[in-house]
Structures are given as structure tokens and as C-alpha cells.
Amino acid sequence: MNPHQPEIETIEASEAETTWTHVIQRVANGRGRIVIEQDGVPVVAIVPVEDLRWLAQREATAAAGGSGPARADDALLSTQAAFRDVPDPEIEIEIARGLTAVRERARNGQW
């Protein structure tokens, strides 16, 4: 979505009600996304308008069977999920090894 993803904060509905102006300002200024819970259950999220537009475009692309951002994001998200238990440094090392091997094959004309 954004290169800088705002912090996600979770608050109870009663707190949202008493701090509504703060909630709106925090989200509108791009400093956060807020999940509101009722009795500990997430029921709604307050997000910046840009995030909502991005989501709507992603849904439209997916509904149209497109191969745009929605499909690319899905591939990245599923790959990320498959490696969620692997530490980032280990992933970075493996990526570097893979790139080295691909570059070597390209230099040797093995494509």
C-alpha cells in the first residue's frame, strides 16, 4: 500500500466515543489506523481516505479478473505467509544467494 504504513491502534468503542476528535485527527493526518472493539471484539476500522481508495481499486481490479496490483499483492502476501516463521536476516541471505545464482547463469548464457 504505502511505503510507510501507519501504526495500527486498537481501542474500545467507549474510548473512541470519548476521544472521537482525536481519533479522526490521528487517522486524517496519516499517523494511524484505528480498530475499534466492542467487548474485546474488533467491529470497525477507521482508516485514511487514501487507504479506502486503494482498497476499492484493488477490489475492482480483482473483480474484473485483472492482473494488476490486486494479483501482485496476493502473490506477495501468500509468499510472505509461507515464510512468516523464517527470520528476516535468513530470508535476505537466501535472496542474495538466489540473485547471485541467477546472475551467474545469465553471464554464462544459461537462459
Topology, element by element:
Elements: E1 8-12, H1 13-18, H2 20-28, E2 33-38, E3 41-46, H3 49-63, H4 69-82, H5 88-107
Parallel strand pairs: 1-2
Antiparallel strand pairs: 2-3
Characterization of this structure:
By secondary structure, the protein is of the alpha+beta class. Helices cover 58% and strands 15% of the residues. It has 5 helices and 3 strands. The chain has helices spanning 13-18, 20-28, 49-63, 69-82, 88-107; strands spanning 8-12, 33-38, 41-46. The chain has a 3-stranded mixed β-sheet. A hairpin with a 2-residue loop joins β2 and β3 (41-46). The chain is elongated and about 65 Å long. It starts with 7 loop residues before the first strand and ends with a helix.
Which descriptors apply to this entry?
alpha+beta; 5 helices
Report low-confidence residues grouped into runs of 5 or more. none
DSSP strand content: 15-25%
Overall geometry comes to elongated
Q: On the 0-100 scale, what is the average pLDDT?
A: 83
Distance between the first and last residues' Cα: 33 Å
Whole-number radius of gyration?
Answer: 20 Å
Quantity of strands, as a count: 3
Q: Taking strands numbered 1, 2, ... along the chain, how are they ordered across the largest sheet?
A: 1-2-3
Sheet of most strands: 3 strands, mixed
- Structural class by secondary-structure content: alpha+beta
Estimated helix fraction = 55-70%
What is the H/E string? EHHEEHHH
What's the total helix number? 5
